[in-house]
Amino acid sequence: MASITYDKATRRYPGAERPAVDALDLEIADGEFLVLVGPSGCGKSTSLRMLAGLEDIDDGAVWIGDRDVTQLPPRSRDIAMVFQNYALYPHMTVAQNMGFALKIAGRPASEIKQKVLEAAKLLDIVDYLDRKPKALSGGQRQRVAMGRAIVREPQVFLMDEPLSNLDAKLRVSTRTQIAALQRRLGVTTVYVTHDQVEAMTMGDRVAVLSDGLLQQCDTPRALYDKPANAFVAGFIGSPAMNLVTAKLTADGAELGGGSVALTREVIAAADGDTVTLGFRPESLEVVSEGPDSVPIKVDLVEELGSDAYVYGKLAETDAEGTKSNVVARVDPRTPPAMGDTVHLRIRPDELHVFSATTGARLP
Ligand SMILES: Nc1ncnc2c1ncn2[C@@H]1O[C@H](COP(=O)(O)OP(=O)(O)OP(=O)(O)O)[C@@H](O)[C@H]1O
Ligand SMILES: [Mg+2]
């Protein structure tokens, strides 16, 4: 087992204008489950492949434990990778697939057999050891791919969207199994996904990437409660946080026909005369019209049983001249109707304020 350090690690693909991964600084503790998350093309797989040795590192370094592995070939890095398309050998049985790396390494047959059996028990696939991959379901193949990584007893597991071939229900149960298994084995793991729910439920910490740049790396709770910038704020959470540009006033900001109070520090820290206000759907409450209420015209009500979400627009234009969309969670027993105007109040300690120019969180 080992810690992992990315030290200003950069990857520039030949001919590309900007680095795919730009001066990535990240420290992952021994035994930690770290999730890399971000939209398509943000550099998740490239970051993982740099760690695996499958991609050159053009600047900076990558360390595994106390070894600088920047120049080491993949086979010398002591890692095991699980890919999206399990890449099982079709002509081999499950047991042969799982034991293949050990066989190549010249380990005795008895040891291979024992390690494969141990891993198979852990993954509950003992009954399938003699089958070929084509005779397995997607979820079972996924577990075989995990088993193949486990038997190698590597210092580090790398997983690139290993659940994306599974249907929604199986994905939920398998992600719980993987997280539990990782905790039991205690092997440092870097896990890539574009699904923020997967990231939030599985990771000890979650690193959010955008355009090759690390935005924030923190516990799921901290990412949710204190996003470092408007990108993270909008990316983490479902339905997404409402983000609206608002004009500053002497003691707050104007918001679509209502007003919200801001502290003096926030107003002083703002650059320019507007800020970006962020508030989650669950941070809004329906109130009667008042000085700090914001009128919203209801477009659609989504009733989910336990919750109801109101999708609407600000009744008046915001600082950018648009009637921004707003989503609010409301009491499912008394939802408003389409076309209604409701007055919403943002719970004051649940308001996030970001610079309208840089997106950075204001104090
Ligand atoms: N071999 C390559 N040559 C040139 N450019 C590449 C190569 N691989 C990836 N890129 C580019 O580098 C950027 C990052 O790609 P990467 O595969 O790391 O993204 P990702 O975050 O894994 O995306 P996804 O969620 O779609 O898998 C993208 O703009 C991509 O087009
Ligand atoms: Mg990828």
Describe it for me?
- Strand 16 (294-303) and strand 17 (308-314) form a beta hairpin.
- The protein has 2 domains: 4-230, Rossmann fold, CATH 3.40.50; 241-355, Nucleic acid-binding proteins (OB fold (Dihydrolipoamide Acetyltransferase, E2P), Beta Barrel), CATH 2.40.50.140.
- It starts with a strand and ends in an 8-residue tail after the last strand.
- The protein has helices at residues 44-52, 94-104, 109-123, 138-150, 168-185, 196-202, 220-225, 230-235, 264-269; strands at 4-11, 21-28, 33-37, 59-64, 67-68, 79-82, 156-160, 188-193, 205-210, 213-218, 242-248, 252-255, 258-261, 274-279, 284-287, 294-303, 308-314, 325-330, 341-346, 352-355.
- It is α+β, with helices and mostly antiparallel strands and 363 residues long.
- The chain binds adenosine-5'-triphosphate and magnesium ion.
- Adenosine-5'-triphosphate is lined by residues 13, 16, 20, 38, 40-46, 194.
- Residues 4-236 form the ABC transporter domain.
- Keywords: ATP-binding, Nucleotide-binding, Transport.
- GO terms for molecular function: ABC-type transporter activity; ATP binding; ATP hydrolysis activity.
Describe the secondary structure blueprint for this structure.
Layout: E1 4-11, E2 21-28, E3 33-37, H1 44-52, E4 59-64, E5 67-68, E6 79-82, H2 94-104, H3 109-123, H4 138-150, E7 156-160, H5 168-185, E8 188-193, H6 196-202, E9 205-210, E10 213-218, H7 220-225, H8 230-235, E11 242-248, E12 252-255, E13 258-261, H9 264-269, E14 274-279, E15 284-287, E16 294-303, E17 308-314, E18 325-330, E19 341-346, E20 352-355
Helix pairs in contact: 2-3, 2-4, 3-4
Bound molecules: adenosine-5'-triphosphate and magnesium ion.
The site of magnesium ion has 2 residues, from helix 1.
